[in-house]
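Now for one record.
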Amino acid sequence: MRLSHDDEENNLSLSKFESMLKTNKVFFFDSEEFEDIILHYMDTGRINLAKRALKLGLDQHPSSTGLKLVQVEMLVYEDKLDLAERLLTELYAIEPTNEEIFIQQANIYSKRDEHEKAIASLNKALKYTSDLADVYSMIGMEYLFIDDLEKAKDYFILCLEEDELDYSALYNVVYCFDFLGQNEKAVTYLERFIDKNPYSEVAWHQLGRQFYALKNYEKAVWAFDYATLIDERFLGAYMEKAKSYEKLKQFENAIASYKITLELDDPTSFALLRIGKCFEKLGNIEKALKYYHKTVHEDPLLDKGWIAITDFYLRQHNFQKALYYVNKAIGIDAENSSYWKRYAAINQALQFYEEAEAGYRRAFESGDLNLDTFILWVNMLQLLGEFETAIDILLQASDVFPSEFEIEYRLAGLYYLLGENDKGKFHLTNGLQLGYEHHSIIEEYFPATWEMNEVRQQIENFRLK
């Protein structure tokens, strides 16, 4: 595996190397210094400098296996896999027990999507390496690539048994539990892990997330509390704790936790928005609106902020202001069907029926296939006297909802209004069969149809059956 000097020595080597490049003088570095310099430049994306360091390193240490393995890593990085594999074959003939050879071979297989072969190579590396944790983690990643999350989880657990501070492995273990829907097993594992590592704020945070997923919000708060006690600047834990308090309807506590996140870092639109919603739940309308406006000031392109203000004014029945703000949200995300539905409802409340009809149509075009959207849309078309268009919409809706009395009664009413009594009678029969008790839809929405003797007689005959 890679060996590196401490940060201070690395910095000295880098300074010395960069000074050499500027002065065109040739300084001597040992092979491990060159390895660290090359890997530093690769990690920071400065490939040209990495290549220069590699060339100088091989000039000074032409037989260094370590530098040649770094060369393999660079070739793999550049997708020169065949060349990398040939060099590995040469190195294997010299050092058949060097674990890095098997690791680099695994990287080549992985790049070729031959993940089973990569796993086999990594298992060979396990025989020779002293850094089991790193290899276990790599095997876990290979199993993730082939969607074998049970085995991936097992290897990440093995990694943590070797290195309890490998938090990326801990996150991966929890990811596997989450993906497999094993939240209770995740809780059991994390509790055991915490027994051995009681000051692991990451483990406490992940435990809180599992309790949250299980809807055990009291326990979630308890776990997040420990995470923030261990690390008083753990922004994510405060955020998750606030969300848990919201679920418990403890809105003052939620606000307090969200406010801590604002102190720890630059304000986030998410936290400002949630604070606004909490204040609204507490009935503090003035502060709610203040934080909603702070949200859109912080992030003017956050459509959720504008829609929060829209909903605020909707609840206040201030439709003129609601219309202004819903247009802001639509300006950001014009494909969001729920925004168009709000737009339609607001215009309907303002008796702007043409705009309301257009809103329901745009909601449908944006993917809203809910029954109530079809019904509200048809109601607008009926108010506008567009009976045939309304029928077309209802027939489309009947393809999605083939046995709905709401649709059948409305088709009946509209066909009778158009004088197509046979079709009206057919759909009225369907409506009565699907829900006789709802025939008042005809009376409420189609009073002219309701007054027709044949309609009243058909309903009475059905009742007497």
